[in-house]
Amino acid sequence: MMNLSRAVVRSFATTAGRRSAAVPKEQIEKGYFEIRKVQEHFQKKDGKPVFLKGSAVDQVLYRITMALALVGIGGMGKLFYDLSVPKKE
What we know:
This protein has four helices and no strands. It is an all-alpha fold.
């Protein structure tokens, strides 16, 4: 039992770097520069919120979300009005 627990602890204590295959330095640098490029795009001071800086799809999704929220608020207002004002018969 003691040997099993040591083996389990050792497997969790070792780093993944020793077990994984080596990645070429050129590939690491390429990925780093791509990430920096994306970071610079999203951190640019242009007055837009970060959730609209991606593409036109972001703007479409944002506008759909706002429209659905307004429809929901309008529906709640109608519901409250219908429940609070008695119907005339």
